[in-house]
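Quick start: read one record
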Amino acid sequence: MSAPLPAAGHSPAAATVRSPAWIAAVAATLGVVGFVYLPLLRYSFGEWLKPDYSHGFLVPLFSAYLAWLWKAWAPDEFAWPDVRGLGFFLAAAPLYVAARFFNVGTEWLQGVSLVLALLGVVTVYGGVAALRWLYGPVLFLMFMFPLPYKVEHTLGWPLQRTAAVGSEYVLQTIGYPTYREGVLLHCQDHVLEVQNACNGLSMLLTFVTLSTAMALVVKRPWL
């Protein structure tokens, strides 16, 4: 999703909009998109209050910062309407319907649908030049949506078991007789359980998000 940074001495082009009709059209379209996806945004906000997705609060802020950082690619004027952007809406609609009515990875699929819709807004009202500028910041928004339950469960249990195995070895190493049954640790007269919250998934998700963000802003070749 990254793009090369501009050469030294390059003067960033300021995106100028002179048409009140453009502003009204963008505002109206974003209002409709926001209304359609409001349940998803409410759900995501509730998940951000939990440890696993607490980084979600920072994702929109970083996307805005990335758009500012890449402002050298902002077109001088937005070419609109660009009908090619309707392709993104045509791709977003079936995902939204599938997520709502088939209950398969509901929130995450709706997140993909929202991102596609936002890419459609960018293209329709800014043309391909605006898409080249903003595709990275918009795609990064995927990190603020919860993973599908099946994916969380598939990742969570092995991580939880790994934490239990590691705890067993540590307790044995420091001199506490311990044996493990699943994620239960029998240590002398105590039974300890490695809870699901201790599986490290929260740290993993935050680490992947932060690593991607750093890769997008660091001034280094892809390799």
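Confidence is low (pLDDT under 50) at residues 1-16.
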